[in-house]
Amino acid sequence: MTDLPDLSTTFTGIRFENPFLLASAPPTESESNINRAFEAGWGGVVTKTIGLHPVDNVVGPKTKFVRLDDGGSRLSMAKRADSTLLASWNWELISDKPLEWWIPRLTTVKRAWPGRVLVASIMAGSGSDEELRHWQTLTSAVQDAGVDAIELNLSCPHMDRVDMGANIGKDPVLTSVVVAAVRAVARVPIWVKLTPAASSIVEEAGAVFHAGASAVSSSNTFPALPPIDPETLEFEVNVDGRVSYGGLGGPAILPQSLAKMAEMTQAFPDREFSGIGGISTFDHALSYFMLGCGTVQVATAAMLDHAIGPNVITDLRTGMAEFLDRNADRGWHSLADFRGLRRGSVVPHARIRRPDAAGYKGGYEDDAEGYAAAEALAAGR
Ligand SMILES: Cc1cc2nc3c(=O)[nH]c(=O)nc-3n(C[C@H](O)[C@H](O)[C@H](O)COP(=O)(O)O)c2cc1C
Predict the structure, then answer these.
(1) Euclidean distance between CA atoms 316 and 260, whole angstroms
(2) Looking at residue 380, what is its pLDDT?
(3) Beta strand 215-218 with 44-46: parallel, antiparallel or unpaired?
(4) How buried is residue 233: exposed, middle or buried, by Cβ count under 10 Å (0-12/13-18/19+)?
(5) Cα–Cα 20 to 30 A to 146, which of 103, 206, 228, 380?
(6) Nearest-CA neighbor of 2 among 14, 15, 17?
(7) Reduced DSSP (H G I as helix, E B as strand, rest coil) percent helix, strand, coil of the chain, to 5
(8) Which of 7, 300, 45 is nearest to 147 (CA)?
(9) Which of 217, 221, 295 to mutate to test the pocket of ligand 1 (most atoms within 8 A of CB)?
């Protein structure tokens, strides 16, 4: 793929060969995966989240994929032919490898790939000074190992503890405290991954930027449960009949994740954002770029493509190259030339045009799918 045009971009002061990263998830859980990812052409990777607490995953599968029968209505996690991916569902915890395992590997990977961007995702609690020191220990260790940036995981959806993961990201005070603690020791840009479960993601983003973060990454997975099997009457994923809230990713979350992103990029048009959720092609990534994102990240699609997404990254890169080629006459030669172009198109409902009285058809113009005949109209509105 040497004949591709220059797709490089700068994000949080870091040069990226291309704006496409693997998100923190199984594709980035090991040195060998990360090496394979860079060989395949990813511009950057965010490591699987690294913490200091011991991690024991549940019995059985940590991730399943929700599929819909082609042309049918059965929605199930059963792997089968003639079905289409709707979403991933996972209740995987952060990396079960300790910090000491990661450090030499981060150093080796960065030395081998100086031109690619290595971001370490880290997580600790927030309920005590000791927990805040954990954030600082993690930050110092990964930046000494050579990472280009850190991403604070304030969005893991499977936390029982009230001072961890998404429970931090739902509280602007805890969010600021954690970012400020990290800022006190960080020499590299701080990205913060927020949860879409926050009641106001704009408030969270404001707190994060105010405390010194360089970028917000969004979305992490949305809180979700697996469907119940109509035969066994059990959740399709369960251990001894029990399940817990997990996270939904993949195609189903793209529109929801775009909505979260639009709220934030409108509130903070001069800030930097990394878009995540449901991306598997350049067309998907384009929606995030048009809202103002400077990079995008991929998890589910990469998992289902040889575990690290060689075909996905090829599509993203060639798709962007073709897009730039198609739009060269507009003077678009890099992401900066079209980034944020549709940010202003999301407006309050009252600002959407209504037809004049004579032309009023109440939205039934095209035999609108999902609606019965326009009775109100027939009755002479
Ligand atoms: C199996 C699995 C494990 C994940 N683990 C992490 C994690 O350790 N840290 C994190 O910040 N996000 C984690 N995520 C969330 C992803 O990074 C991403 O935000 C989410 O899946 C949405 O992107 P997607 O639609 O491309 O999957 C995980 C996602 C999946 C599917």
Answers:
(1) 22
(2) 53
(3) unpaired
(4) exposed
(5) 206
(6) 17
(7) 35, 20, 45
(8) 45
(9) 221
Instruction: Give CA–CA dist 181/133, Å, rounded.
Output: 8
Q: Which residue has the tokens 């859980």?
A: 29
How do the domains of the chain map onto residue ranges? 9-347
E strand map for 220-329: 222-224, 246-249, 272-276, 295-298
Output the six-digit token pair for 354: 């209504």
Note the pLDDT of residue 376: 57
In this structure, what token pair is assigned to residue 270?
């001069």
CATH code for the part of the protein at 9-347 = 3.20.20.70
* Residue owning tokens 């700068």: 10
3-state secondary structure of 275: strand
Nearest CA, atom 2, ligand 1: 25
Token reading at 25: 């998830």
Q: Which of 11, 28, 27 is nearest to 19 (CA)?
A: 11
pLDDT, position 362: 78
**Residue type present at position 132:** L
Q: 77, 138, 218, 220: which to mutate for ligand 1, most atoms within 8 A of CB?
A: 220
| Predicted local distance difference test score (pLDDT) of residue 75 | 97
Report residues of the chain scoring pLDDT below 70.
1-2, 366, 375-381
235-274 burial, b for 16+ CB within 10 Å, e for fewer? Answer: bbbbeeeebeebbbbbbbbbeebbebbbbbbbebeebbbb
| pLDDT for the residue 364 | 76
Beta-strand (E) ranges in 160-237? Answer: 190-193, 215-218, 222-224
Please name the residue whose Cα sits nearest to atom 18 of ligand 1: 220
Cβ pair 192, 151 in contact under 8 A:
yes
pTM score over 0.85: yes
Q: How far apart are CA 324 and CA 181, in angstroms?
A: 41
